[in-house]
Design a protein that fits this description.
This protein is of the alpha+beta class and 410 residues long. It has two domains: 146 residues, DNA methylase specificity domains (Adenine-n6-DNA-methyltransferase TaqI, Chain A, domain 2, Alpha-Beta Complex), CATH 3.90.220.20; 149 residues, Adenine-n6-DNA-methyltransferase TaqI, Chain A, domain 2, CATH 3.90.220. The chain is built from twelve helices and 21 strands. The longest helix has 41 residues.
């Protein structure tokens, strides 16, 4: 039987804490090396595909001792603890809120990523020492002393190959979803921005728009409202997921949902009967702070949501028009229109009244129906891929603790 031994993290490799170059000197920032910050990481996602900022060659020369090679596990140790980590896929740098472990020759970086995910990530939360600013914090010294059970290198590599096969397939499916969404967005632009819709060559245009199309206020097309307020005492440990702006932003960016709040099934049923809940094709829009992230409710979605920060467009009964609207909201024109309609100085807000007053171009019904039919084929494929991702994620997460316990024979 393969023997697993317990080691401190610092005995598994070199622990490296990142740096943030002075932002006043923009010569430190360029396009050469990824500069990973916690805000670039996506919970549950192995690699960071793109970063907000990159190191320049000048920054590389100054901080090259902190350069991380590919397959280096990175854990957030300042800020929101116990949630975010990643594995590097290229040479890169991190900021000071991240501790990375460059594995020594006895250890595999990809295995360490999964080992940290299985045990270290949650333990980091318990080590929070706190700071005068109130931010969660775990020192490099405390992080380095965390103990991890690991097998010999050959077994590490076998375990890593099993788990990475799941993640590779999940990533492949996500890329397929992105390609389908890009194709759908291009179809929208072709028909409704460039006006190359079916039959456009035989159409007459009046004042720059096709004959029979019209300009309408959103409030005249849909009922726009919010939800019943949920109080803190209504939260439970398990039940119906409770979405805030955070969850809607994650959904709109194709990220994995990390729901932290729930309401009881009984309260959900009460709200559903009295106030209604989002139905398939309804649209939710973030309307405070981060404006204009929009999500169209899917067939199998069951959740409740917070009023005030989210606006609810009840569009389920107008499927074709609703499908057109979600693509308008996600277009550059839609996003800019929402932002320009906000009020407030210290914190922007998009009120229901302002949203109702927004005007959009509405195509003829037959064009809307043809567009909806085309888009539905993309949606069906995306739904199938999302289900496959969910199944693979569940299988991987069930397998992870069994593999890391050392009891499952490889």
């Amino acid at each position: 039987m393969v023997e697993w031994k317990e080691y401190r993290i610092k005995d598994l490799g070199e622990v490296v804490t990142g740096n943030t170059p002075p932002t006043s000197n923009r010569e430190y920032y360029g396009t050469e090396y990824k500069f990973i910050k916690p805000t670039d990481m996506v919970e549950g996602q192995r690699f960071v595909s793109t970063t907000e900022e990159y190191y320049s060659e000048l920054a590389y020369q100054k901080y090259k001792k902190c350069l991380l090679p590919p397959k280096t596990p990175c854990v957030v140790t300042i800020g929101s603890l116990g949630k975010k980590m990643c594995l590097t896929d290229t040479e890169c740098f991190t900021n000071q809120a991240v501790n990375a472990v460059i594995p020594n020759k006895e250890n595999d970086g990809e295995f360490l990523y999964y080992a940290f995910k299985a045990s270290v990530l949650a333990y980091v939360k318990q080590l929070d020492s706190g700071t005068t600013s109130g931010r969660e914090n775990v020192s490099k010294s405390s992080f380095s002393k965390i103990k991890v059970r690991v097998p010999p290198l050959p077994t590490q590599q076998k375990i890593a190959s099993i788990l990475s096969a799941y993640d590779n397939l999940i990533q492949n499916y996500k890329k397929q979803i992105e390609a389908l969404q890009t194709a759908a967005s291009e179809l929208y632009k072709e028909w409704f921005v460039r006006f190359r819709f079916p039959g456009y060559k035989n159409s007459r245009f009046e004042n720059g728009i096709p004959e029979g199309w019209k300009i309408e206020r959103l409030g005249n097309l849909f009922e726009i409202t919010s939800s019943k307020r949920v109080f803190e005492e209504d939260y439970v440990n398990e039940g119906i997921p409770f979405y805030r702006s955070k969850e809607i932003i994650e959904l709109s960016n194709n990220q994995e949902i990390t729901t932290e709040l729930f309401i009881s099934n009984e309260l959900y049923a009460k709200f559903k009967n009295k106030f209604g809940v989002p139905k398939e094709n309804d649209i939710l829009i973030t309307s405070v702070g981060s404006i204009g992230n929009s999500y169209q409710v899917r067939k199998d979605d069951i959740f409740y949501f917070k009023d005030g920060n989210l606006t609810w467009i009840k569009s389920s009964s107008k499927k074709a028009l609703s499908k057109y609207l979600i693509y308008w909201l996600k277009s550059d024109l839609g996003k800019n229109t929402l932002i320009s309609s906000t009020i407030g100085t210290s914190q922007s807000a998009l009120t229901i009244e302002k949203l109702r007053a927004i005007k959009i171009l509405v195509p003829e019904v037959n064009i809307l129906e043809k567009f909806e039919q085309k888009i539905s084929s993309f949606d069906i494929k995306i739904q199938i891929l999302n289900k496959q991702i969910a199944n693979l994620t569940q299988q991987r997460d069930l397998l992870l603790p069994r593999l890391m316990s050392g009891k499952l024979k490889i």
